[in-house]
Design brief:
single chain; globular
């Protein structure tokens, strides 16, 4: 599920890793063996996190095809301790790798032989960052010489140069830190014009719940000016899409919906809000309870869809029973969340019957220019399936051991 990790994990021992994976893994100082010597062939990178004995290790896996019946092999993967993230512009030939074990980002460049060559490293430690976590899209690439990293722990926007691999600046996000709450960013920020709009969610640092507060961090990429806009009508607003009317629609994420389903009471009702990026204000006249769009079912998350639509995730309680006392994360991780397609012009939602129910937390990844895959954490979170979303079939394209929070087409 979408949980901001604040823990740092030591490297797995060889014995523990062998027992947990039953596979040998390469050394992070050695390049990956060639995949294909034809430069025209695509190359993709998937980064998987494998845990054993409360320790985590990540693997950067290269493949020249996302259509595979056998799971991706970890045998030739680059090892990275802790929870690693891989990011970068699509088809740029560069992969920027970070880890929960420190505050560094390392660039790997793709060679013509289809291997990754380790290049320069930049550190954010000088700006107070101790660990890099959460999600791939907290890294936003603006140009060849400018990139952002959104850091919730220090409430900063880190500005850095991905070509020179140098730290440029750190901009304080005023008002982001909330006493007694953990800050967590979106998996899919919105880009429109010269703005990066990053939804923010808060949850209590102790106990189960969500904070009744919605927030959007708005960054002007021409000046690096940062504004935080808040709204107190919703909670755990972690997802957003750009509508055909130019407005940004944001909604409570699936975990927030699970908390409301389990706890009820004073828990903020999962809802949909509308934000005007031109005036940088929420529309105070617009508010929808998400369940009213789906026949009263527990509903959370708002993911980009085709042609002026978005996807909602809706819990199917005919296949999964919510028992009293069940932890919301268990509910949100159940393979019982169906897909509904929401028309943003009419706000009418229809169930997509061809897409199978899957875990509530999904990451979307682009392949080429017309294909989108979504992730499903399966087998008690020991496997990640990448399923087809573009054709609404849900067919498994490929899978990998561990939890995959990052994927990028390099060529």
């Amino acid at each position: 599920m979408k949980l901001a990790s604040s823990f740092r994990f030591p490297r797995l021992t060889a014995t523990a890793l062998a027992l947990s994976l039953l596979a040998a893994c390469g050394d992070d100082k050695d390049p990956v063996d060639p995949i294909d010597e034809t430069p025209e062939k695509p190359v993709y990178a998937a980064i998987a996190q494998v845990s054993a004995n409360n320790e985590s290790q990540s693997y950067v896996i290269l493949t020249d095809s996302v259509d595979q019946t056998a799971p991706l092999s970890l045998e030739k993967a680059i090892e990275v301790p802790g929870r690693a993230l891989g990011s970068g512009p699509m088809k740029s030939g560069s992969l920027y790798v970070s880890s929960s074990e420190g505050a560094e980002v390392t660039r790997y460049d793709l060679t013509t032989e289809g291997t990754l060559e380790k290049k320069a490293t930049v550190s954010f430690q000088g700006r107070g960052v101790a660990s890099i976590g959460e999600y791939q899209n907290q890294f936003q690439f603006i140009s060849n010489t400018k990139a952002y990293y959104f850091d919730g722990r220090t409430a900063q926007l880190i500005v850095w140069n991905p070509t020179d691999m140098t730290l440029v600046n750190a901009v304080t996000i005023n008002g982001l830190a909330t006493e007694g709450a953990v800050t967590t960013f979106a998996t899919h920020p919105v880009r429109t014009g010269n703005l990066v709009i990053m939804p923010v969610g808060w949850r209590p640092s102790a106990g189960v719940g969500i904070t009744k507060q919605a927030g959007l961090v708005v960054v002007d990429t021409t000046t690096d000016a940062v504004t935080l806009v808040k709204d107190d009508r919703c909670g755990y607003v972690r997802d957003g899409v750009l509508g055909p009317d130019g407005m940004v629609y944001v909604a409570t994420e699936a975990y927030g919906a699970a908390v409301f389903r389990v706890a009820g009471g004073s828990t903020p009702v999962p809802c949909l809000l509308k934000f005007n990026p031109q005036t940088r204000t929420f529309d105070t006249t617009f508010y929808r309870e998400l369940s009213t769009l789906t026949g009263g079912a527990a509903t959370g998350s708002l993911l980009p869809g085709p042609q002026g639509t978005a996807y909602l995730r809706v819990l199917d309680e005919t296949v999964y029973t919510v028992n009293a006392g069940t932890h919301p994360r268990v509910v949100a991780s159940a393979q019982a969340w169906t897909w509904w397609q929401l028309r943003l012009d009419t706000l009418t939602a229809t169930k997509v019957s061809t897409l199978p129910a899957s875990t509530g937390s999904s990451f979307l990844f682009n392949v080429d220019d017309d294909r989108v895959l979504f992730t499903e954490f399966a087998n008690n979170s020991t496997t990640t399936n990448f399923r087809e979303l573009s054709d609404q079939s849900g067919t498994v394209a490929f899978s990998t051991q561990g939890l995959a929070f990052s994927f990028l087409q390099l060529r």
